[in-house]
Target: DUF4365 domain-containing protein
Amino acid sequence: MVKYTNPKIEKLGVNAVSNYIVESDYLSDFLAQQSTEPATDGTIRIYNGPGERKRDLIGIVPVQVKGTTTKNIIKYNRHEIDIVDLTYYYKVGGVVYFVVYVTNKVPKIYYRDLLRIDIKEILKKNEKLRGKKEKGTITIDFREVPVNVEDFRTVLLNFHKDQDYQTKDYVELGSINEISRDLTFTIIAPNSNIVEALKYVSPVLYKNEGDLKIPVRRFKIGELSVFTKSEFSIGIKGANSYIATVMEGEEETEIQIGSLQQLIVKFKEGRFKVDFEAKGKIQETIELLEILLGIVTGVNLYIDNKPVTEFFIEEVNEDFISRVNHALESFKKTQEALNHCKVPSNFHYEELTENDIDVINSIMELYQTSIDNTWGKFEFNNRLVYLLKHKGTIYNLLDSNVALEINFWSKREDGIQYTTTPLILIDDFSKMNDTEICNIKGPIEKLIPIHEKACSDINLICVRLIDAYDQTNNNQFLLVAFELLELIIPFTTNNEIHLIYLNKYQIKKRWDNLVMEDINHLGAIQKEFEEDKRIYLATLILLGAKNDAVWLLNELKKEGTFSLSNMPILNLLDKEL
Model:
């Protein structure tokens, strides 16, 4: 049985690396059997041509060889390195570190090309786990050398290149999701075969600071893939087409469809995977699901405006098709409900909050219910949506095409209570004649004592009446609005009472009829709601503080945090200016 002494192990290790390197006409090693260097055993020289001529010399790489009889390197591809050695390697710019398992008839060689960025990460991680230590060892990962030594020469070429770029300090930018103009990496790939080079090379990502390249992070082998990019149009017969971006790699093909890449289909080793996310507008979501259905069935699918006659994907089970159909029908019903309820559907799904999603579900329930004369009031996508279902039709109270839909339970005949629902449908308040304007008041007078919750919405109707006056100068709009506000004030006990008073006072302002009691009340509202910028702006306008009102209005426009639309009180400010 062979007795492996330390000198013998080291000698076998160095011999194994030398025998491996000598197989290349473009590499030569200078490795000492009994090195006296503090932490390296020599160097490997890289040439641009055979013959080891000086003119062909590209660079010299420092090397450390460690022989071992421990099987951990074979089982786990891991080995210990002294902390003091790592610190030295960092100072000298890095090292290519070999670990050789020598007890085999054919030694197994493992390596790690340690750049400064790698060493700093290793030492930093060790310090975080164990505290700052200058002695001891750290166990790190290694890789077996490629069978073809020319592939290993590619590793050495890239190591030498990155050695030149490395600096002692590097920028920590965290996770890099997208490579910008300031972030770049380069790969030396013989014969321009980048795909082959990435099997062995770990590229370093750099931040460009003028001529200086600052290392940011190092990609792991296998983390990057090379794809060829192409595009085609895809769609369903009679519907919109979308640009499909094809990213074709050596092992995987990915098709990205949609303005926000909502639909991604991946093909790998004869199998496919679909990633779909509801982003963008609801119509686009529906059309992309129809495209997905066309992809998996081949029905009605068009590519580059030509029908696809064969199945695009053949190995699809019925369960998957059923799930796509279910999702498609769900979005179609949602769109149908929103359109029927005249709820604006130009929102983007990715911008919706959880509360918005809950509201959509509630609107769906209202749309699908068989119970008639049903109320629904919703705050959706920063809009107020106020719905009433009557005789199978849903009306949106605040829709521009509907003046008023009110439902109430009040009338009794012979002791029997039943429901009446007055509806006033009109295109635009400003087009109403005096009779139609007055007709608004009657149903609301009956409604108020029974449905106090409707007061805030009646207040909004009054705002529309005030705006209609500003468009037409028909005083009948103000008269009806004023009477309605007077009617709902006794029934409003919540925080919206001040809004009702502000609308009452802006009517009186138009009549030039504000009295001292009104002015004192406005001053009290201004003081109480000084932090509410919209209310404060309204009080400034009504109290005649034009300069302050203009300044605050400009500030609100700059901030863009408040909607200044549907505020007819601003018409007063324009008139005074």
